[in-house]
Amino acid sequence: MTDFSKNLKNKLLFPFVAPPNGGKGTQTQILSERYHLPTFDMGSTFRAIMKEGKDPELKAELESYMNNGKLVPIKTVVKVFQKGLEALAADHSEAKGFILDGFPRNQEQADALLELCQHWEAELSKAIYLNVSLDIVKARATGRRFCSENARHVYNVNDECLAPKQQKISPDGSIATDQQGRAIGLCDIDQAELIVRTDDEPQTVEKRLAEYQKETNPLIEHLQEKGYLAEINGEQAPEKVTLAIESLIQPILGLSTAS
Ligand SMILES: [Zn+2]
Fold it and tell me: Taking the model in full, what pTM does it have?
């Protein structure tokens, strides 16, 4: 068996923590490209195992818990992370480090990460926490509307710049509404009706945010106590968020800060 653990020696790890719809995807994509820091994404790694059969042994282990309605234990979650990141590192030996998306998600996982860093002789740099108030992320999620003809046409009724320009009009001349009493917008491009995805329904969003808070609040405190937390104001314009993260990571990467 190939020992992949040495692939992470002296690599820098940048975990990102943010609420759902907190702008993490946008930021990690920009930074990953600009600084050649490949992103390890826990969600897609998990899907690659379960759906694409990337690691049958690990899939069977995960299924043994999930099919019995049990929570996947920490050691298995850590195994998914470890194998996935080691494989990514094997493919990117030239990278100075890696962005971590979706790991650690809680305090237990953060401790596991610190242990792994010792094992790998990798360096956990600051965890980048995009602080966005839950009211804002809730508005972003519940305001999202997708074109029923082309899912790439995305709008947001809670954001002036992204709101659709037209609403559907009922035969009686009033603005047409959906079952929840929300005005039905029309796509600016093809005039198709705009729809709300199940994931963006208020009760679903509330539930997701409650779960996030329950796990993340202790994680944030824990990272702070250990000196690993770098908090960024995630409510600024995306370009400003990027700049704030860049001025934090450039010195860590040994680059001089752009003035
Ligand atoms: Zn459209």
Answer: 0.87
Determine phi and psi for 235, rounding to 5 degrees.
-90, -5
To 10 degrees, what angle do helices 107-120 and 202-226 make? 50
199 CA to middle of ligand 1, Å? 19
41-74 pLDDT per residue, tens: 999 999 999 988 888 999 999 999 989 888 899 9
E-only strand ranges, 20-135: 39-41, 97-101, 123-124, 127-131
Of 11, 126, 144, 145, the catalytic one is 144
Residue 239: the pLDDT is: 96
Tokens matching residue 255: 């680059």
Structural domains present in the chain: 5-132+205-252 (3.40.50.300), 144-195 (no CATH)
Helix, strand, coil percentages, rounded to 5, for the chain = 45, 15, 35
Query: Residue 136 and residue 154: Cα distance in Å, rounded?
Result: 18
210: pLDDT confidence band, cut at 50, 70 and 90?
very high
**Measured in whole angstroms, how far is the alpha carbon of residue 224 from the centre of its chain?**
20
Neighbouring residues of the ion ligand 1, judged by CB less than 5 Å = 147, 149-150, 153, 187, 189-190, 192
- The average pLDDT across 206-216 equals 94
Rg (CA), the chain: 21
202-220 burial, b for 16+ CB within 10 Å, e for fewer?
A: eeebeebbeebeeebeebb
Task: Please give the Cα distance from 226 to 234 (Å, whole number).
Answer: 22
Alpha carbon distance 218, 223 (integer Å)? 9
Give the active site residue among 11, 24, 140, 145.
24
